[in-house]
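Next up, sample data.

:::
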Amino acid sequence: MMKGYDLMDAETKKTNYSDHSAYSKRNLWSGILFGLGLVAFIDETLFHQLLHWHHFYDKSTTDIGLVSDGLFHAFSWFATIGSLFMVADLRRRNALWLKRWWSGMMLGGGGFQLYDGIIQHKLMGIHQIRYVENVLIYDLVWNILAAAMILIGISLIFKMQKDPKLLRDKATNE
């Protein structure tokens, strides 16, 4: 069975592939939004709802904590849905570049997690990962995973920039 973009005429494909570099930023940003939304969703679901380790905002009552969790969940949902609209548009234009998108996803997820671990947990102190006597191990795991995701995203970007064939021809990239 042929995919929808296989039915396009050769001239349309040529135009879409030549415009591919114009969609490079859009691929990256849709991945960043998706990664941010995905990691926020996992954080909200696992640590807030299932394990009950903390709320988004722990410096007030439980009710305020639950409201803050709801707002946080809405934010992650809108980021994820917004990114998927961007992906749908890229697919429609035959300009989805999966390696670029994955690099953005890793950057967005890692960036959110590192922001959460350093800014929200330590500098602002609005919540901790878990309220235990020795939180250091939780902080280290959280921030090392975030840094690893960021490094993977950056390495994917550099790998694509060093290989001009990946920049010219989407078909060899996927």
Observations:
- The helical segments are 10-18, 24-50, 62-92, 98-123, 136-162, 164-168, 170-173.
